[in-house]
Design brief:
The structure is a homotetramer of 419-residue chains.
Chain A lengths: L3 E6 L4 H12 L2 E9 L6 H11 L3 E6 L1 H14 L11 H20 L3 E3 L8 H12 L4 E3 L1 H4 L4 H10 L13 E5 L2 E5 L29 E8 L2 E5 L2 E2 L2 H14 L4 E7 L5 E7 L1 H17 L2 H19 L6 H13 L5 E8 L2 E8 L7 H4 L11 H20 L18 E4 L2
Parallel strand pairs in A: 1-2, 1-4, 2-3, 4-5
Antiparallel strand pairs in A: 6-7, 7-12, 8-9, 8-13, 9-10, 11-12, 13-14
């Protein structure tokens, strides 16, 4: 029975190639969509393979610039790191892919979209929620979740249907990659006591193999976004690519964490994100120079909330929009240059300057230029301390804190009467 | 006119030695108090110098163990880092010193306590607030803030009163040190564009001078506190000292930040805290294995609040007590061993194991042992996404997000009709 | 096929009576469990009906005291109100019922428990999550969710199996009730523009029918919990029942809100909770007298988190335990008497006294007894304002805020030159 | 010695009239500034009195509209209530007054501004911080804080200098008033056990004297702001004035609280704010219909932060600007009509409708139109409960929660074996 068209997010790999045929078996015409978000991908080869396998149409697109402008940059403004650690590499590309699934479904008059995620990953949640947020009437199909093939079944099915099966030995790792980083799962990494082996990494050198010479990079920020590297202005895609290369060469950007997955369990995740790690570190240092203390404090919680939204598939949500408004306003003054030292796996901020610096020499200095009103301290401390002093006075009839251990003899008091 | 006794927090340096005489000039009998909290100090020499300068009594005490048990460990349980970065080195010793100032004032029948802080630092606030919280009737004197001496005036006064003046050239840096780290201010560090010079550091090697060989340490935690290093049980003071040495040798533990001071301005602060940096990093990694996701999320904000309290002099406050109760409960399951790699300035967690691990292999694995119910995902996603889908349906009469840039032409859509 | 024993949460109504038979049809032996948590229930009649309908065993228990001690009181300590409004009436009884389902399953050697919730309520989530948290190996059955009976089908099935069907006309409302309040849903309430009709309420008078005389009650709190009413000490169950009666008579305790359900949609909910509303209001007023400002501020967020946990079925969770520790510590000083005026639907706190009051007359007064140091204000303001003044100085080269509307002519400035 | 011009915030009362002369005595030319923000004030009489007393120039301005547009409305968007209770009546007028002090100082070439606040109030902080934020080079004088007059001294000084002294007996209360409410302090209110006497109130009837008939008002909101009352569009000033009148007549809008003052102590504050109370209550109810659950949750904390900023004098601060951006975005969908019942001191929301309602009938209903997918619940609950179930499995080797009281005998289990 003919069910209409489905738009399949197509990576070009075995799973989604098999999915083309499987969806056709279910009665769908299959349109594929492949996006270049900075991973290693041959778009033309993808298109060809899709059409050969039976797709009735194959869209391929370079979305790197849109990825950076509309997804990576807002997340950078928000210093978005899930659980304070993960720069949301894969999580940020999912709403972009969902947007185009919905868009192509509209163009093609498709009744459904499909993706190659399994039933325990979080990308299934992100893609389904984002797609249906944009076009609620679309069905979302998940062939890999539904077909219940074993690996061998899948290969048999592929051979049977003339789908090319990769001959190389399967890597032990499961990888996802884009311009904003690379995530590595499975294989030996499933044991959290095991140090990630060198062969898990591709973008970053082992620290001990990194250059013996220190290298400095200077990053210029404008309204919270990087606009130049070592004084040379460049667009976002180029800047991230260049910084990935430089920082990666020095072994900078590896992340290794136990992460709470959206679907309710913990997972060990390894990432390599050279540019994100350096940019987030640099911007946070610059913020401490240019933002008011209470803005820094209020932001901490909102940054985590923002990252959570991106992680759980709530990119197209009103809370995310309101947080963007907050960050856009707050980041207007995050301007300046950050000097970062790269060496043997570590990036270190070693210099900061900004036209908006709130670090004011003549307040901070202990030298003779000091303009701070020292005598104000007396009144300040009086009022500042009033709540705790009042508290202790009210509760003092009990016993002062320092008598609590009166019976303890742990601190012999040594004193000497003079004369 | 005789005003009674004052207890002076006495470091043994020029400022507080001059303060002894100056307070005597004001009509006070001076009792000094010197605490060993892990800095380089010769307690007996201090006592002798105090008495020679005119103190009527001189207390000297080794408080390292109490410092660790009652101040450092609670702060570690709370992952307390001010503005997410500073492990509160100096801030943690101030309430301890205040406690003993109040205690000795009680013993001695003193009417006041005194400290050697200036009028723009934050230690004046911490000491005055903490001391008066414990004993509200005490006056707190700040001779250095009040005497309005220039450096030359002070030296003249010292010479005139027979107080020994150090002959060595004054270091450009202002230093405070204890077992939990070392803070370095002033001199060339006042320019945030300047990389901290090597001579600012004492506990940590320059990364390029650190050993060429990787070193691993294994830290055993029990209820959120470290109890063994490389399998060897040791008490807190010994463990911190040993870890300072090992991590410092590898150049680990340097911190460099623009910090918001309590008295309303920003300051560039440099710290070296080898043990704190490694312990905090290790424990946070272990927490991601042993704590529930919502505990980790809820804690983030409370950790910052805790650090803020310690930083601003609110150690003896009811909010701190309530937060301690929270952290003590939550940390009960933070048990396990963390393997940390030290190399050229960087510490990296590379292994985790715990009897309380919430990382459950057969849920997380993608291998055949998988026990996760994949089919549950369908219902979960349906309900999980319902709020954003509803939102977009209600607001959809306007225009879907993906049409916002309808007029833009930035993404030419490439597609190929098959056949 | 015989499947073993199931423990059914049994209300005595039609749904759960039908469920007894239906579960027996599925191959289970059915043990029923009925708890008295303060609703109108005849425990002995329930037992009899269960056994008559076919249950192999019927447990009935008065759990009112445990309900108050272990569920209501901790929630009151936390000022737990979901979305700031709903005192969690039904949500608090679910973990208690789950605990006994698990306990009886253990005693009876049952393989499953069952409840009468539908598939869109939140009680299904609470009961299933709580029960499996306590005894993860138990299956949880939801006959009403699974049997897909229409109302008529159900009545036919009941008649066919000799289950008594109530002859009275079904109320338009769906009700749940316990000592901590009564929740009312459905019927005319599904239209949020409709004012809840008088017949929806049972515990509270319409304000215009309430007594014309003001009534005062005095509630004594000890460590955050009420221990006496109008000076008369009573246990929790008695105190709540008495206060429900008094406040309800004056029409106090009605709540009407749009509420975000756990399962992803909004619902209009009406509650009547006379005692909870008065107790929460009174305690919050007393807290403002006895708790430090920063404790009040920090608690606000934690109270909402606590309520959320109870609402979403996470009662038996580590975050709830840690929050309990926080609240238990913080509430130690919430002691005192609160005087509340009840009149025509409204409760108003009109008097507060406490042995721990932080309201200190001679600080607060403007009369001659004033002990506040007015001169301290000058220094305080200087330092307090420093961050915003610095901010504006740094950003002032742009234009001061008050010139932003320079071109506007909206405020003609009227002035008069003298002489 | 002539010191230049000072701009004095002039109320027309005794304190600020004496201040004119006192500042002239100190060597200043005095320019007065009187703003109408909705209090009872005769601007022309003020001008005349100022000039008669010796002011060299007297500005009087009706700033009600600007007060509402730029101060009250942003605060309403943020649901700003200090400590969750106080709608910031006085706090909101201070930055407006500060803005005009700075503006007039610029026009007049004044070197200083002055205000009539005492040394323990918070208005001194607000005015000084706000004024110096706008024009950091201005001195801020506080004659009443500095002159150390007793009440009798002040009256003598006034008589001596020909300043008219009010002959009526001084009210026991200290009052501040504007369009957004009225604050009442001092006198009998300083005892928190005393119910506020009727004579403290001016805008609100005693509930028992309010009309015996219920009255309904319908408020139309657009993007979070009220635009019509009972269907009649009106501007902000008119709408607030009208609603103050209607609600006040029914005794609605009284607030009585222990409040944490900015200067470190607690104070008992009484307010009457008829329009603010109704508008805040109505808007919050409408938000629960139109905002997503996570927006409501995230806002709770930001609303308190916003109120805190306004309360402590940080109106002209970057955090406030960023929060405004958040609220402006989030409030775009807060559109609709709220029906409020007023009766005997109480306002109750009894009806809600909105073009943006997220309350979706066919999801929420339990009737036959139900469109919710009940079967999704099974998978949802599975994954939703996974974290707590995992937690308990990992920690289960200890003992399940329900055995904790195994030894307790408080719940005799009643059961009956059938047959």
């Amino acid at each position: 029975m003919y069910k209409g068209k489905v738009v399949l997010a197509y990576s070009g790999g075995l799973d989604t190639s098999v999915a083309i045929k499987w969806l056709m078996d279910q009665g769908y015409d299959v349109v594929t969509f492949t996006a270049d978000v900075g991973q290693v991908v041959d778009l033309e080869a993808c298109k060809e393979r899709a059409l050969l396998t039976g797709a009735c149409n194959a869209y391929v697109m370079d979305l790197k610039e849109e990825f950076v402008q509309d997804f990576v940059w807002p997340a950078l403004k928000a210093n978005a790191m899930y659980q304070g650690t993960y720069p949301l590499t894969s999580a940020l590309s999912r709403p972009l892919i969902s947007k185009y699934l919905a868009k192509i479904a509209e163009i093609e008059g498709a009744v459904a979209v499909a993706h190659g995620c399994t039933g325990k990953g979080q990308d299934q949640v992100r893609i389904e929620v984002c797609t249906r947020a944009l076009k609620p009437d679309l069905k979302v199909l998940a062939p890999v979740r539904d077909w219940h093939f074993s690996r061998d079944d899948e290969i048999d099915y592929a051979k049977e249907h003339g789908i090319p099966v990769p001959v190389t030995k399967k890597s032990p790792y499961s990888i996802d990659e884009n311009l904003w980083g690379r995530s590595i799962e499975c294989g030996p990494l499933e044991d959290p006591w095991t140090e990630p082996p060198s062969d898990a990494f591709k973008l970053t050198a082992d620290p001990w193999d990194a250059p013996d010479e220190v290298e400095y990079v200077e990053i210029t920020f404008k309204e919270g976004l990087p606009v130049a590297l070592n004084g040379e202005e460049m667009d976002g895609v180029a800047l991230i690519a260049k910084l990935n290369e430089i920082a990666g060469k020095h072994g900078v950007g590896r992340i290794d964490m136990i992460e709470d997955r959206l679907v309710g369990f913990k997972s060990r995740e390894v990432y390599e994100c050279p540019a994100p790690v350096v940019l987030l570190q640099a911007k946070k240092a610059l913020e401490k120079m240019t933002l008011a203390k209470d803005v820094i404090a209020a932001k901490a919680d909102l940054e985590l909330k923002y990252a959570e939204l991106a992680y759980v598939g709530y990119w197209f949500s009103p809370l995310k929009d309101a947080l963007d408004a907050f960050f856009n306003q707050a980041q207007k003054v995050v301007n300046g240059v950050v000097r970062v030292r790269l060496y043997k796996g570590q990036s270190t901020v070693v210099g900061l300057k900004s036209p908006n610096s709130l670090y004011v020499d003549d307040l901070a200095t202990y030298s003779t230029g000091d303009s701070f009103d020292h005598s104000a301290a007396v009144g300040f401390i009086n009022i500042w301390g009033l709540p705790v002093v009042t508290w202790k006075q009210v509760h003092g009839s009990k016993k002062p804190a320092y008598q609590c251990e009166a019976s303890s003899e742990k601190e012999p008091i040594s004193s000497n009467q003079k004369g």
